[in-house]
Design a protein that fits this description.
A hairpin with a 5-residue loop joins strand 8 and strand 9. The two termini are about 35 Å apart. The chain folds into two domains: about 55 residues, Multidrug-efflux Transporter Regulator, Chain: A, Domain 2, CATH 1.10.1660; about 290 residues, 3-Layer(aba) Sandwich (Rossmann fold), CATH 3.40.50. The chain has a seven-stranded mixed sheet with strand order 8-9-5-10-4-11-12, sandwiched between helices. The longest helix is centred in the C-terminal third of the chain and has 26 residues. Helices cover about 45% and strands about 15% of the residues. By secondary structure, the chain is an alpha/beta fold.
């Protein structure tokens, strides 16, 4: 993945260096900041050309959030890291982004939000979480945008976040027994859809009710997979669940398109035979099924990511020239382009 500096970008785009920086400041040319330098990639150049070509159409689009679930039924696969890193990159491109933490472990919440501390300096649970609005929506049959926005907090990385903690587990059985369980989360997200361009869902490592609820509310999914044994099997199980949800006949559920944007492969060690083998298995699976594998954007196993998590920083800020940062950068730009292409098609078809 070749890094391009401002001088190289100016030569490739036939712009002077001042105009390159202007395009960056306008959000048209995506970049990462490495010290005093500004860098981009081939995908960044592709993104810029796409935005330039469709600028008038994109400016005419009304804000209407697309919902993306990040899914894996196993823990420890960098799903949460992928969600908040991509959320930050989408936000930096001028999108308004909401991250909804649906995992009772609350790892996204703990990483992207300042702790809720009382006057004595004691860290307390957040007074408003996703649990509160889910249970209120179930009890009342309606929840207002204003009430939902009371749970929203500004993250340290620019995007908004609805927090979650272990208390979500206390209402799962009650939600499962609800007559309207299919639409609780979907209806909540619909209320704030005109406030955002993207709503990203960090789902728990399970294929249970919380994930089913998230997928029913989603336009797209990203599967995050490890390059290890049973990785393809895990992807297949997730896709089986997606197909079950898409085939629901419930008028209430009315699941969305649920398009798979791609499979992010994390913690890869391409210097080992075992990683190369399982990456190859995933690539073969992608060829057979027509599902996009981000094979040019593998996330390598590195100590830098857990170190950045410990300091509650972004890998793209801590080590912007690393393979991890550049891969996340390219994945985020690819997601943004593909979703915007879909929105343009919707407009052409009279959907917006």
């Amino acid at each position: 993945m070749k890094i391009k500096n401002v001088k190289q970008l100016s030569e490739e785009l036939n712009l002077n260096t001042s105009n390159v920086r202007i395009k960056m400041s306008e959000g048209k040319l995506p970049f990462l900041k490495a010290g005093r330098a500004f860098i981009s990639t081939e995908k960044g150049v592709e993104y810029y050309k796409f935005i330039e070509e469709h600028s008038k159409t994109l400016e005419s689009l009304k804000r209407s959030a697309k919902v993306i679930s990040f899914v894996n039924h196993k823990g420890g696969c960098s799903k949460t890291t992928s969600v908040y890193t991509i959320a930050s990159l989408l936000e930096k491109q001028g999108n308004k982004v909401l991250l909804v933490d649906l995992d009772p472990q609350g790892n996204s919440t703990q990483t992207v939000l300042e702790p809720h501390v009382n006057d004595e300096g004691i860290t307390l649970p957040f007074p408003e979480t996703i649990k509160n609005i889910l249970i209120e929506r179930k009890a009342n049959g309606f929840i207002s945008k204003e009430r939902i926005k009371q749970t929203v907090r500004k993250s340290n990385f620019g995007f908004d976040c609805i927090p979650c903690d272990i208390s979500l587990n206390s209402i799962i059985v009650e939600l499962q027994n609800s007559s309207f369980k299919e639409i609780l989360l979907k209806e909540i997200l619909n209320e704030v859809a005109d406030e955002y361009d993207y709503i990203l869902l960090d789902t728990p490592p399970t294929l249970g009710f919380s994930v089913i609820s998230a997928l029913t509310a989603s336009d797209y999914i990203c599967i995050v997979s490890l390059a290890e044994a049973f990785s393809v099997m895990g992807v297949e199980q997730t896709l089986d669940l997606v197909n079950q949800i898409k085939s629901q006949t419930s008028v209430l559920a009315n699941p969305r398109a649920l398009e798979v944007l791609g499979i992010i492969v994390s913690k890869v060690e391409m210097n080992t035979n075992i990683s190369r083998h399982f990456v190859g298995e995933l690539e073969a699976f992608g060829e057979d099924t027509g599902i996009n594998i981000y094979s040019d954007c593998l996330i390598p196993k590195t100590t830098k990511i857990p170190e950045s998590q410990a300091t509650r920083e972004l890998i793209t800020d801590v080590d912007p020239k690393s393979e991890s940062s550049l891969s996340y950068f390219d994945i985020a730009m690819d997601i943004d382009m593909n979703v915007k292409k879909d929105r343009i098609l919707e407009k052409l078809k009279g959907g917006l």
